[in-house]
Amino acid sequence: MDNWYVYMVRCADTSLYTGIKNIARRIDEHNNSRRSTSAYTRARRPVELVYQETILTRSEATKREYQIKRLSKKEKEALLDIVTPPKSTFDCG
Q: What's the N-to-C CA distance of the chain in angstroms?
């Protein structure tokens, strides 16, 4: 049985998109696909994976996705800070 993943990506405009699926394939779709991806991220490329959770069932992953989507952007940023503290310098490379 495969695990499900809840993930957040940061779009080029700094907005956050939350979804569930196979992460590696989905990030590629968000960045490269002309169809079968979110219209939201298609207009805001490139996207970068900033958060993920492993969930055992699709039902639980869907519930967690809904919880995260209901958070304000400030609350989502706070969640990201807990998981990955902010960098002190930015890589402009």
A: 40
Topology of domain 4-83 in CATH is GIY-YIG endonuclease (3.40.1440)
DSSP 8-state assignment for residue 87: P
- Residue 82's contacts (CB-CB under 8 Å, 6 or more residues apart) are none
The token duo for 5 is 């993943």
Query: Is a pLDDT exceeding 60 seen at residue 90?
Result: no
Range in 8-12, 15-19, 26-30, 72-76 with the lowest mean pLDDT: 26-30
The Cα 26–Cα 9 span in angstroms is 10
Rounded to an integer, what distance in angstroms lies between the CA atom of residue 40 and that of residue 15? 10
CA distance 45 to 68: 21
Domain ranges of the chain: 4-83
0.85 surpassed by pTM: no
Residue 83 near residue 76 (C-beta atoms within 8 A): no
